[in-house]
Design goal:
- It is a single chain.
- By secondary structure, this protein is an alpha+beta fold.
- Helices cover about 45% and strands about 25% of the residues.
- Strands 7, 8, 9, 10, 11, 12, 13, 14 and 15 form a 9-stranded mixed sheet that branches. Strands 26, 27, 28, 29, 30, 31, 32 and 33 form an 8-stranded mixed sheet that branches.
- β9, α8 (about 215-225) and β10 form a beta-alpha-beta unit.
- It starts with a strand and ends in a 9-residue tail after the last helix.
- Mean pLDDT is about 80; it is low at about 1-15, about 415-420 and about 995-1005.
């Protein structure tokens, strides 16, 4: 056994160390994989030491090379534990080695952390198994395989404990899932030629091959499998022991490595796992190896488990606050850790919850994960441990014999091989003699020895016959005495067994009771105690829980030695009352509960509550069982609530706004003085009474009250709800209510509360403002069109538009200028106002827009500011109505007024101009022409342009005036509008039409 004491302590750090053992087989595996497992362990230790170690100590690993030429592996482990006094081992290698080490671990109370996946059917309390067991990486993989690759299975494995055991599990699973096991093949570890097995696979042609060959044997098998020309899409191989390390070696050894792409492997970890923790682990591993290694060194499942388990041990040590094996073992149960393989949890059966991953060899030479199940509970006994305890114990013992039987079979086979070797060696000593020549010599020698032995045997038989009689007599007597003694012993044993069982049961019950009581008492938020007042006046404290430091500031020992301090620590103002309560409790055996202050040993006074129940025992002692609880925080809360309530009450009483609480039916529960004042009552009580007597709670409109209740009940709140209510003198005021609903634990509406404001003055102001606004708006509408007013309201500064099709009317009172010099100003304005007011009414009735008046002239437009298709007809009707209306007004000489009207149709630009005294006006050639039609028209007539005539000729009667000279335009054809055709008799219509054709220009002859 070689030992390497490689220290990983940081230079200059503390000298205290904790030694652990790291066991390895230096030469086992491809590329010395065991050395890599050791390196992963040392890397984790170095990382821990660099971060400060564990419990103030650096970890010092003692690396042990297990040498197979030594007497036994168990002896090497025993020497390590005895000589170096190491209690924690990491590593260990093959299953056969682990099984040899278990008795040594149990004898020395040592703990092994085992990072290898193994065959299961084992659960030693002295081993933590951090690799996966079969139910985690084998059973899920077989399920997936049977579903996705086929159910005709060829099973091949290395002849050893792992393959033999695991293949039994696989064989049972295949049978259970109705698969077909075509062949089960075992190859010894020393054989590396698999041509015979591969030929058999070709002949049988299974759906898939399941390999439990050892890692190094898997490499040789897959290499020869590929060379035999069997492709993965024909007969894929699922390797249960092939890791990233072997895949890297296999890939590099093949001339065309792509041929192995598509084969499968199952494990709880692959290097390609894309998680933050795995990538961090790989970066650390690359840094650990530095330039001597590849930039991306290969890592396999065992190496990551070896790294992880060191941190699991550290976590358990820190939880237990000791390096002792048993406390650390207890602390490890249930702990979780995020490892490179994902989150793992330590189960009480010493195995870990971990994932199952099925991966495929990708053309890049790496494993590509296809299927994941995470996490899986470890069941090393294949679920038997979940059975009834009485059943599971028997089955587990039977299952344990499987691996032991396999190991014993190995030993027998080894002995047979040694025996065969010995015979061969003996026969070899014949120095060329034939077997027939050698046999007689051997036979004579053996017969000689047998004869001599027979002579000795005959002599011995004679001697035995001489003493046989005496022995028979002595034996009979001895048997009688033994039988009597046996009966007596059996009775005594039965009696002692019964007494011991009763006493043991009583002790167990007492211990469990004490443990339950201690557990409950230790977790009670206070001091649980038993105090005894003896008849002589002495006081003792048989039990007190360990929270005295929190309540009284003294330890349990000080508390029990100085019981008088309990009363001395009471606040002077509370001490007398506490003493009186205890005295009365002792005399009357009265349970008491009392609150008092503790003032000693604290900067601030603490409030405590003592609850105590007395009884008197057979010795006359008065015994109190009770608890003392710190209620300082509760008192602080109560004081805060009291202050908050006072503050709320002050706000409630002195608030300017009305505040109320009401039942779901609207009846007030509470109201503040401000609310009473709003309703005109002197006190809130008077208001509550009035509201209770009124079914509509003082609302003037019952419908409005129902709307309020419906909204608060269905929407949970009411905001800015306005209503009219009665005051105490039955006068009516406006109020504004904001309220929210309250609900019970089941969500039922039970009440509401809110604020009330008297908004009567505001409402009056709003009404007055609204009236003024209406006046202003009406005044503005008398100046400007409604659409233009709306644009002014929204802040448009420049208001202008173009209309391509409108009709404009200009009207002028004939000889009004001469009249203005003959009448008084009042009469003149009155007369003109009457005429133009009648025109305004006509414009409103016909939906036309009055533009302006200039002296005795009147301007109106159709089709602005709102477009309309009948604008020409509306203007025509306006002109006819104006002529009819003007006839109702008389001059001073009792003669009727006459109008001269001109109409044109065309495009205009309209808009508002000015910054004071706004005016809505029109511009454009069409406006100028309409004005010329009026000024060049005939008194009492309506002159229109050709454009307007074309729009009206089908419905109205015209007289074609002919061409007239118009200033600025030259000659223009004009027409005189007479009336609607439907309003003229047929003869007049015919006459007008004839005049129109002849071009007659005398207006008087046509009417």
């Amino acid at each position: 056994m070689n030992r390497e004491a490689k220290s990983l302590n940081i230079a200059g750090s503390r000298t205290e160390v904790m030694q652990i053992g790291v066991m390895q087989f230096p030469s086992v595996g491809l590329g010395n994989s065991e050395a890599l497992v050791k390196d992963a362990t040392l890397m984790a230790i170095a990382e821990i030491n660099q971060s400060g170690g564990i419990l103030g100590k650096n970890i010092d690993p003692i690396v042990i090379d297990i040498v197979t030429t030594d007497h036994s592996i168990a002896a090497q482990a025993r020497s390590l534990l005895n000589e170096l006094e190491i209690k924690n081992l990491f590593g260990c290698g093959l299953s056969s080695v682990r099984k040899q080490v278990i008795p040594v671990l149990e004898k020395h109370q040592a703990q092994l952390w085992y990072p290898y996946y193994y065959e299961g059917l084992e659960c030693s309390k002295n081993i933590f198994y951090t690799g996966a067991c079969p139910n985690q990486v084998i059973q899920p993989a077989i399920n997936w395989l049977l579903q996705h690759k086929g159910d005709r299975i060829y099973l091949i494995g290395t002849d050893g404990i792992y393959s033999r055991t695991v293949n039994k599990i696989i064989r049972a699973q295949i049978k259970q899932q109705n698969g077909l096991l075509l062949c089960e093949d075992y190859i010894t570890r020393e054989i590396s030629n698999y041509q015979e097995s591969i030929a058999k696979i070709k002949h049988i042609a299974p759906s898939v091959v399941i390999s439990t060959l050892s890692p190094q044997n898997s490499v040789a098998f897959l290499q020869q499998y590929a060379e035999a020309g069997i492709k993965s899409d024909e007969i894929p191989v699922l390797s249960l022991r092939l890791t990233d390390l072997e895949l890297r070696y296999l890939w590099d050894s093949l001339d065309n490595p792509v041929v192995i792409a598509g084969h499968l492997a199952s494990s709880n970890y692959f290097q390609s796992l894309d998680t933050a923790h795995n990538q961090d682990f790989l970066r650390k591993y690359a840094t650990w190896f530095g330039v001597e290694r590849s930039p991306t060194p290969t890592v396999n499942v065992v190496m990551q488990a070896a790294y992880t388990q060191v941190f699991l041990w550290k976590q358990a040590v820190e939880a237990a606050q000791t390096f002792d094996v048993i406390p650390v073992r207890q602390a490890a149960y249930g702990q979780s850790f995020t490892s490179p393989a994902g989150k793992i949890v330590r189960d009480r059966n010493h195995h870990i919850w971990t994932a199952c991953r099925v991966a495929e060899i990708a053309p890049t030479g790496k494993f590509e994960i296809l299927y994941t199940v995470d996490p899986i509970k470890p069941m090393p006994w294949l679920g038997v441990e979940e059975l009834h305890p009485s059943t599971s114990t028997v089955v587990i013992e039977i299952l344990a014999d499987i691996t032991q039987g396999i190991q014993q079979s190995w030993q027998l086979e080894k002995d047979a091989q040694e025996l065969e070797f010995t015979i061969a060696e003996l026969l070899g000593r014949g120095q060329g003699k034939g077997r027939n020549q050698l046999a007689p010599e051997i036979t004579r020698a053996v017969m000689s020895k047998m004869f001599k032995a027979n002579q000795r045997l005959l002599k011995t038989q004679a001697d035995l016959l001489n003493v046989e009689g005496a022995l028979r007599d002595a034996n009979e007597l001895l048997e009688q005495r033994i039988e009597q003694r046996t009966l007596q012993l059996q009775k005594t044993i039965r009696r002692l067994q019964n007494e011991a069982a009763d006493r043991q049961q009583a002790e167990i019950l007492l211990r469990e009771s004490q443990q339950r009581f201690s557990a409950i008492a230790d977790n009670v938020p206070g001091v649980v105690y038993r105090a005894v007042l003896h008849p002589d006046g002495a006081v003792s404290m048989p039990y007190i829980s360990p929270r005295t430091q929190e309540i009284f500031g003294i330890s349990v020992e000080e508390f029990t030695e100085h019981l008088e301090w309990v009363f001395d620590m009471a606040h002077p103002e509370d001490r007398a009352e506490l003493n009186e309560m205890v005295r009365r409790s002792a005399e009357e055996l009265m349970t008491f509960e009392h609150e008092y202050r503790v003032s000693s040993l604290f900067e601030k006074v603490k409030w405590v509550r003592i609850i105590s129940q007395p009884h008197r025992n057979d010795q006359g002692d008065t015994v109190w069982d009770g608890v003392i609880i710190d209620i300082s925080h509760q008192k602080q809360i109560e004081e805060s609530l009291r202050q908050a309530e006072e503050k709320y009450r002050s706000i409630f009483e002195h608030a300017i706004e009305g505040i109320f609480q009401a039942q779901a039916d609207g009846c007030y529960i509470n109201a503040n003085p401000a609310l009473a004042n709003i309703y005109g009552y002197e006190t809130p009580t008077e208001l509550l009474t009035a509201v209770a007597l009124d079914p509509y709670r003082l609302f003037t409109e019952p419908k409005r009250y129902q709307e309020f209740l419906h909204q608060i009940a269905n929407e949970g709140s009411v905001a800015s709800f306005e209503a009219l209510v009665y005051k105490s003198d039955r006068s009516i005021i406006w109020i504004l209510i904001n309220a929210r609903a309250n609900y019970d634990q089941e969500g039922n509406f039970i009440s509401f509360e809110g604020l009330v404001q008297d908004i009567t003055q505001r409402k009056l102001a709003e009404q007055a403002l609204k009236a003024e606004q209406e006046k202003s708006e009406n005044l503005l509408l008398n100046i400007l069109p409604k659409e233009i007013v709306n644009q002014l309201k929204i802040g448009n500064n420049a208001i202008a538009s173009r209309s391509d099709n409108v009709s404009i009317l200009f009207a002028d009172i004939v000889d009004f200028t001469a009249l203005s010099t003959q009448v008084s100003p009042n009469d003149l304005v009155t007369m003109l106002n009457g005429i133009f007011s009648s025109f305004d009414l006509l414009a409103d009735q016909l939906g036309l827009e009055k533009i302006k008046t200039i002296g005795d002239a009147y301007m109106v437009v159709g089709g602005l500011p709102t477009a309309r298709p009948d604008h020409a007809e509306a203007i025509a009707e306006m002109a006819l109505a104006m002529q009819k209306s003007i006839s109702n007004f008389k001059r001073g000489d009792d003669t009727a007024f006459r109008l001269r009207i001109g109409i044109n149709t065309g495009a205009v630009v309209a808009g508002v101009i000015g910054i004071r005294k706004f005016i809505y006006d029109l511009w454009g050639d069409a406006v100028n022409v309409a004005s010329r039609m009026e000024s060049h028209g005939l008194a009492g007539g309506i002159q229109v342009t050709q454009a307007t005539y074309e729009l009206l000729k089908d419905k109205y009667a015209f007289w074609h005036r002919g061409k007239i000279f118009v200033k600025g335009r030259g000659e223009m054809d004009t027409y005189m509008l007479l009336d609607r055709k439907s309003h003229l008799p047929a003869s007049e219509v015919l006459e007008v039409n004839e005049l129109d054709k002849e071009g007659t220009q005398s207006l008087s002859s046509s009417v």
